[in-house]
Each structure stands twice: as C-alpha cells, then as structure tokens.
Amino acid sequence: MHDQDSKLDHAAIKARIRELGRELGFADIGVARAEPGAAVDRLRAWLAAGMHGEMDYMARHLELRAQPQQLQAGTITVISAAIDYLPHDRTADAPGQAAISRYAQGRDYHKVVRSRLQKLADAIAGLAGPFGYRVFSDSAPVMEVEYASQAGLGWRGKHTLLLSKRGSWRFLGEIYCDLPLAPDAPVDEHCGTCRACLDACPTGAIVQPYVVDARRCISYLTIELAGAIPLEFRPLIGNRIYGCDDCQTCCPWNRFAQLGDPEFSPRHGLDSATLIELFAWSETQFNDRLAGNPIRRIGHERWLRNIAVALGNGPASPAAIAALQERSTHASALVREHVDWALARLSSGN
Fold first, then answer.
1. Among 13, 53, 299, 349, which is 20 to 30 Å from 47 by CA?
2. How many domains does the chain have?
3. How far lies 176's CA from each of 67, 71, 221, in Å?
4. Inside any domain, residue 188
5. Is residue 325 part of a domain?
6. 138 among the known binding-site residues?
7. Closest to 53 measured CA to CA, from 206, 209, 213
8. Element (H, E) at 31
9. Coil, strand or helix at 176
10. 250 among the known binding-site residues?
11. Within-domain flag for 202
12. Catalytic positions, please?
C-alpha cells in the first residue's frame, strides 16, 4: 500500500503534512512512533496510587493507551497536532465573577480539532494514496502529551501539561496511522528549577513535579467528580466553577503565548458573567446556551453544585444570599447540600 511507487516519498509527504497542517490552522505538527514507552509505567504507578479518583475509565482503558494498535490496527506512527486556544489574557479576579477555565469559554474543542484532523487525513490520502488511520482529540485513550513531546511539540511541564516556548494554551489531537513516517526529535525540557505551578495550585494537587493527584485538583472536583465536593476543598475552590487555570497562568513560558484561534472565542459572556446570573439559569437555559460547549457534559446539577460553592466563598451580599435561598429547596439533594453549606458559610462570615 505504501511502497516506493507512492505519489510522493515519505519525507516529502511529511513535509507536506506540516504545510497542510498550517493551512488548516494547526500551530504545530510533529511525528512520533506509536510507542508510549516508559510513560505507561508511570501511568500504572499513578493508577496504583489511586490518584485517578473516580475516573475509572483511566484504569479500565490502560491497555488501550499502552498499545495503540488495539485502538487502530496497523498503527505504527502518530501524527501529533496542536491548536492554540488562548481566547484572552484576562482573569476572573472579582469574587462575584465566575471563573471558568479558558478552554471551556467557547466552542467544544473536541469537534473543532477532530474536524480539522479529518481534513488533514483526507489530504494525506491524496498525497500517499489510501492508508489506515483514525483521528483523535481527547476522545479516546491516547497518551496525548507523551506523543506530542516525543514528536517535538514541547515537553511535559511539571504540571503534567504539554509546555513549549510558546506556552501551554494548546489543544492536542492525533492521527494514528500506518504510514512509515520518520519520527521527529524531542525538544529539550526548559522548566529547570522553576516550581511556580506547584506553588500556585490552590489545593496542592501537584504533589511533586510531574505528578498531579486528581483527587485534589479543582478541574477534577468541578468536572469529573459526580458527588459531593469534599469539605476540605470547598473553601479553596474560590470562584472557580469549571476547571482551573492557575498552574498555567503562573507559568513563565505563558508570557510568550499568542492569542489563539478565533473559533474558541468566549460565548454567552462566559468570560465575564457573574456567579449570580449563571446560578439563575434553568436546566433548559443551561442546555440551550451551552450547546456545542464542553461544559454541557457536566449537567445542570453539577453546574449548580459548583456555583453554590463559589457563592459560599464570596461576599455575603443580600443578592448572593437570596440566590442561594432560591435554590435551597431544589429537587437535587446534591444541590441542596452545597447550597446549605454556602449559606452557613456566608452567615458565619466565611
């Protein structure tokens, strides 16, 4: 299928893939072998320590991560791609404002990245002829950061995200394929002795360099955790209602980050909304306004749970107390529990 009679040789195909990637809006394209290597052992140790919390799928799909060929038969190469997404450089510092992770303020990246990767794969087929492939964007058990770092797109930062000299505000996507493309060389790491991300984490979730205990991470607590947020972490969450960017906003390399693709521009005022206005959304409004947004996946119940905690961490204004009291008889016991906690906290002066 991929012999010397191909329309272009593999070196030329690889060079053209980079050009096509840029034309499709990717910030960077690299190639790695489909061999996650020592990263699998690190993942096994992390799982054995229980740091994945309730994310059972991490353990369930371990072998799929370890063996790419189980996801796509014949895979020998991973084409790794990055898209810049930084929508703005503002932070939600006011306690009454909703702090939403920047990646979730606009369009759902899964669809955008996967759509562009599919276009790239179609173009590759035009160069190399039919080939076996599958595209991914945080949509299957793929060791994204490992392949991106092997492919020279950056290095794994101490916060475990991919980091480059242009920062970390990037979405990753991959094409698993059977094209024998030469792998790129990894780049050197440039974190040095810096520990800004470890020191900035509000809950101490980066328990040591390159190790995040998800059970302490605000992104896990506000997105992945289905039940009650542990009492010890509620005051530390502040006004963060979906995810947390603190380990990125403090990173010195992110001073060099460029504003990203306009596809990810904020929608529905999610970059400036107040907690009280978002808390008032009905379930129908939540579903309608967040159609095509990753936040919609957590559902209205967790949305209210998270905002209740944030309101409890803010000022005890009459408006905040009234908003919480309005939800104190909500049908969900989970929502009621967090509303009661917030009201008690405001009445005690935090």
1. 299
2. 1
3. 12, 9, 31
4. yes
5. no
6. yes
7. 213
8. strand 28-33
9. strand
10. no
11. yes
12. 138
